[in-house]
Write a structure and sequence with these properties.
single chain, 270 residues, Immunoglobulin-like, mainly beta
Amino acid sequence: MLEDLRVPKNRRLVWLWCCLGVLVASCSQSNTTNPATPIATLALLKWTNVPTASPTSTPRLRRTPTFNPATLIALTLVPTPLPLSVNMPHCQETPVGSLLCLGSLSNPLSEPISQMIVRIYLVDQFGNALAMREVPTARHYLLPNESTPYGAQFEQTPSEYSGAVAEIARALPNAQPLPDLAVERLESTYAEGLYVVSGELRNRSEQTVEQLSLVATLYDEAGQVTGFRHLRLPQQQVLLPKQNLPFQVAIIPHLAGTQHVAAAAEGKLP
């Protein structure tokens, strides 16, 4: 279902301690009807990497905060999430002042999972939550040992921001039959700030697959997500049994250091 490919290759946080007599105060400042024709034309947005704060240690969430539901996405009561592996996000400020956080979630279980939602917190150096977002992962389901990228964008960077942490908000056992799709002949080229990823989707199922989509992900040497793209094919596009379908998609690397490209296909059985 997925294929990998190797490819060729802070805002400062200043603390001022001010003393006056026996009074001490601290202050911080920041800083997606022809089965043979793929459709992969996407509108792209150019981003520029801007350094953000680098915490001196791994950020941690000290406690789950209580937020004003009028300003943040309301939490939904869901079953206890499955024990999955979620990588901590890496965040980068964009040219317009927002903060983009990217990470990945893996399925170490022996069964497929679906409906994954990740909750991302921005925290200060003491682990206090400053902001939160809940986002669905790029992929809708994961087979055992597969992974999916996720991303969240915050409108602005809090002045006390020191790092980001993530946790599973929802992940459920998959109850629907899944197609057997593979990504073959995966290739990648880099030019003018874009990775162009191409290959073929192959239907290894005995049934026609509908609602086809593809997620291509860029990783650095440490396995951190540097960018990803979700390509959703037109509703009328189907893949017959044992049929291949070529694709091509362009990805902007939002973070530096891309070394590895992976792609995975998804679809639905009729």
